[in-house]
Write a structure and sequence with these properties.
Immunoglobulin-like, 2 domains, 279 residues, alpha+beta, single chain, 5-stranded mixed beta sheet, globular, 2 helices
């Protein structure tokens, strides 16, 4: 019986490892070949409001990330008509804007030319840039999965208030946030036979009344992307269950060996007594 159970566990382990290879793979298509072009704003434009739209042309159906002063400011998908629009937050003073195009695997195409604009910010005692960052510009998954996203706040005066528009009519708010690192999570109910792209906007306010935001992208039911690497992993995954099963199996085998050794030891003692008994 122990031999049969061991063979079964070995077979299951090989299946899980094969599944892991498939899940951890990534679709790595060609990167964009056409550079994005920023049409709005224009060179040397000046603004008195830090929140502005950045729009232009791009390689259709790829993704566009906007950078200001080499810091990520927001992302969107390039439409089928070859256009993009991203709402970003400017830094005080000079902002060098660049649009960079990517595929879903984050392989980059040629960047746009630099467009320099200026934000004429009010004079305050806190001149440190206030902005929000994330490791990812794109998340993907299937309907019913728990999509999660980690962020970090730079600058500003805490505690902070966070508001997120998930793009499906849902909004979440975090008040009195004292940590500069936080996680957001959401579950979409998109029909499984339908693919949807959502524009997610995360806005952070500090106690001084300053605001910063980040526009991002979520894809639900996209068959070209392996969603398991983007969604929250289950509490107990198959590999962990098999590890527990192997430990239990090893314990049972050890108990069986100990029992067998004890039995053999007992037989040896009994036999030795009989051998010492006088005839």
């Amino acid at each position: 019986m122990l031999l049969a159970i061991g063979v079964f566990l070995a077979a299951m382990t090989m299946q899980v490892r094969a599944a892991d290879v498939v899940v951890s793979a990534a679709v790595n298509g060609d990167p964009p070949s056409i550079p994005a072009v920023i049409l709005n704003p224009e060179q040397d434009n000046r603004f008195t409001n830090p929140t502005i739209p950045v729009s232009g042309t791009c390689d259709p159906l790829f993704f566009v990330k906007i950078f200001r002063n080499n810091i990520f400011a927001g992302a969107t998908e390039c439409s089928g008509d070859g256009e993009f629009s991203v709402t970003i937050e400017l830094f005080a003073g000079r902002n060098d804007l660049v649009a960079r195009s990517y595929n879903a695997a984050e392989n980059e195409g040629p960047p746009s030319n630099t467009v320099t604009v200026y934000y004429d910010a009010p004079v305050t005692s806190d001149s440190e840039p206030f902005y929000l960052t994330s490791e990812y510009f794109l998340r993907a998954g299937y309907s019913g999965q728990n999509i999660y996203w980690d962020f970090e706040i730079h600058g500003g005066i805490g505690p902070f208030t966070v508001n997120v528009d998930w793009g499906d009519g849902s909004n979440d708010t975090i008040k009195d946030l004292t940590s500069r690192n936080f996680r957001l999570q959401h579950e979409y109910s998109t029909p499984r036979d339908k693919r949807e792209h959502y524009k997610v906007t995360v806005v952070v306010y500090d106690t001084a009344g300053r605001r910063t935001s980040l526009q991002l992208v979520i894809i639900i039911n996209d068959p070209a992307i392996i969603a398991a690497i983007f969604a929250e992993p289950p509490t107990v995954i198959p590999g962990e269950s098999l590890n527990l099963a192997w430990w239990a199996y090893a314990l049972v085998v050890l108990m069986g060996v100990c029992f067998w050794l004890g039995e053999r030891r007992g037989e040896s003692i009994v036999n030795s007594k009989y051998r010492r008994r006088p005839a």
